[in-house]
Amino acid sequence: MLARSVKSLLVAVFSVSMLFSSNVLMAQHEEGQPKKEAVKGGAEKKEGFDAKEVIFGHILDAHEFHFFSYKSGGKEHEVAIPLPVILYSPQKGFSVFMYSAFHHGEHEVDGYKLVNKQIVATDPTVKFYDISLTRNVVQMILALALLVWIMVSIGNSYKKGQGVSSAPKGKQSLLEPVITFVRDEVAIPNLGHKADKYLPFLLTVFFFILINNIFGLVPGTANVTGNIAFTVVLGVISFVVILFSSNKHYWGHIFNPPGVPLGVKFILVPVELLSAVLIKPGALIIRLFANMVAGHIIIICLISLIFVFTEKLGTGFGIGSIAISIPFTIFIYFIEILVAFLQAFIFTMLSAVFISQAFEGEHHEEAAHH
Questions:
Q1: pLDDT (mean) for 266-279
Q2: Residues 26-32: what's their mean pLDDT?
Q3: Alpha-carbon distance 309 to 302, whole Å?
Q4: Residue-wise pLDDT tens digits, 299-317
Q5: Where are the domains positioned within the chain?
């Protein structure tokens, strides 16, 4: 019964879409030929919805938080929060101004202009360095401030005895199960008696990634964890922690694998060294980056289908595609909330596993001693 109702609804939606789009398609066909000729002549270029620009505009960094655009009085207006632009040139010194001063590329500011939304110098001989507070930087600062405020306030509550001699309240009751989960399911099983030593690092990484993942799901914000520079820095930090946690047994097994024939060692040693130096940090970097980018691209593509169908096939098809695009978008959005927690957990778990491998030789020494 439910299946029949769904089928009937889909048939009705697309029947109406065909009805609305028939006249629109004919009009587009009649008007399309002159536009194609104009493009061939180079005099006119057809403007329309550019899904590629929307996708990369969301994923890449920018000098503003852009929410949406609208047309009024024949002009396009944007609802956005501009950020400060900080440029340094050895010839000109510092230049500080708001990104909105460019007026969407119409104005030049202090010898700089916008070309394809990129800041360039009007004089090609002028070299400069862009050290602006971009939206990724601002959002990371906000995430860090939120993380510090939450953890400090919870720590002060524990110092006052709340959650120790009485039941936890507020933020404590929300985050204590998460902290306990990271300690009992990630730190202790992998790090054993050294779990308390590495727990602050693991908790910081987990909550910092989680907060940035959740921030990235808010429309108009930056997808910080979908930026390769962000994940590279996290991967390098984890690599440094792994490196300082290693011992002679760890490196001994890499450069002189025990029980392996000499001929095989010439092949195995470079592979093991590459795994320790590049593959393990790379797994942390690429996994987080790829998963967070993929989800956002899928959501934007699903929404873009409405505008693409409207532009290419007519308003009726655009309206009809809403019945498919919106439900799938909502479904993927809830999946992304799950992925936000899952990727923070996986990054933390893999970091704990790699750290435990760095001092695994100590377990053998302790067993022999006992």
A1: 87
A2: 36
A3: 11
A4: 888 888 888 888 777 787 7
A5: 67-130, 135-369
pLDDT (tens digit, 9 = 90+) per residue, 323-340? 888 888 899 889 999 999
Alpha-carbon distances, residue 238 vs 72, 183, 185, 355 (angstroms): 50, 18, 19, 9
CA atoms within 13 A on the CB side of 35: 10
**Is the four-CA dihedral 56, 57, 58, 62 of positive or negative sign?**
positive
Q: How far apart are CA 129 and CA 221, in angstroms?
A: 25
pTM, entire model = 0.79
213 with 225: CB under 8 angstroms? yes
The half-sphere exposure of 167 on its side-chain side, counting CA atoms within 13 A, is 4
User: Over 60: is that where the pLDDT of 152 sits?
Assistant: yes
